[in-house]
């Protein structure tokens, strides 16, 4: 249970990462991924990387520069332009549904204009899921200059698109529906220089 705790990625650049384990029964037609990050990086970095043997950017949440987040599904991406961080925690949620190809992006509890991405696509199931690195091959192929350095917390993955109410609840750390990956009962393995510490502030 990582309640009120964070992963601290200490080095920059870094070869460290955290592997997340989950049992997905079937391919994803919908998903929502949420997490909280705290960093002063201005170079590109990867937050959440979900790769299959067929596609290394099956799901990827990436920040190429301080004013943009990018969501990849099945190797294709949409960009969301955001205000530059004022040196505080940032909470992001990204969701996608196959039927309409609609990608939603929420930053600190507010929705951005929706975009179209990979309509009719299905996200594969035999996945390597990790925090802090971008996979260019299944379970590896890292570029240290895309590595994350800073603090990560409140990581969730759902196999559904969350409603606006639940998106706001995720931001406020309120009660959430059962998830495929849940911060409060996370099955994970630290690889390299990552430390679990109490959160310094709410």
From TrEMBL:
* SUPFAM superfamilies linked: Concanavalin A-like lectins/glucanases
Q: Which UniProt keywords apply?
A: Acute phase, Calcium, Disulfide bond, Metal-binding, Secreted, Signal
Q: Which InterPro entries match?
A: ConA-like_dom_sf, Pentaxin_CS, Pentraxin_domain, PTX_dom
* GO-annotated cellular components: extracellular space
* Matching Gene3D superfamilies: 2.60.120.200
Cofactor(s) this protein cannot do without: Ca(2+)
Cofactor binding: number and manner: Binds 2 calcium ions per subunit.
On whether 4Fe-4S is a keyword of this UniProt record, the answer is no
Please give the superkingdom of this protein's source.
Eukaryota
Q: Cell membrane among the record's keywords?
A: no
Q: Where in the cell is it found?
A: Secreted
Query: Which residues pair up as cystines?
Result: 34-93
Q: What GO molecular-function term can you cite, just one?
A: metal ion binding
Q: Domain Pentraxin (PTX): where? A: 3-202
| UniProt record, GO biological process | acute-phase response; innate immune response
Family annotation (PANTHER family): C-REACTIVE PROTEIN, C-REACTIVE PROTEIN-RELATED
Q: How does it assemble?
A: Homopentamer. Pentaxin (or pentraxin) have a discoid arrangement of 5 non-covalently bound subunits.
Instruction: Tell me the protein family, please.
Output: Belongs to the pentraxin family.
What's the protein here called?
Pentraxin family member
- Give the species this sequence originates from: Todus mexicanus (Puerto Rican tody)
According to the entry, what is the taxonomic lineage of the organism?
Eukaryota, Metazoa, Chordata, Craniata, Vertebrata
């Amino acid at each position: 249970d990582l309640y009120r705790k964070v992963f601290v990625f200490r080095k920059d650049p870094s070869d460290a990462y955290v592997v997340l384990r989950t049992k997905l029964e079937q391919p994803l037609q919908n998903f929502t991924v949420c997490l909280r990050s705290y960093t002063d990086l201005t170079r590109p970095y990867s937050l959440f990387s979900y790769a299959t043997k067929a596609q290394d950017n099956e799901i990827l949440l990436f920040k190429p520069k301080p004013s943009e987040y990018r969501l990849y599904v099945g190797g294709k991406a949409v960009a969301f332009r955001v205000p530059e961080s004022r040196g505080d925690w940032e909470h992001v949620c990204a969701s996608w549904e196959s039927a309409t190809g609609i990608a939603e992006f929420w930053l600190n509890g507010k929705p951005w204009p929706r975009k179209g991405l990979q309509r009719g696509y299905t996200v594969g199931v035999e996945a390597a899921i990790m925090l802090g690195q971008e996979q260019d091959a299944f379970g590896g192929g890292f570029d240290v200059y895309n590595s994350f350095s800073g603090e990560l917390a409140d990581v969730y993955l759902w196999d559904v698109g969350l409603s606006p109410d639940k998106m706001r609840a995720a931001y406020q750390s309120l009660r959430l529906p059962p998830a495929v990956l849940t911060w409060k009962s996370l099955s994970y393995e630290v690889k390299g220089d990552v430390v679990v510490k109490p959160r310094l502030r709410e």
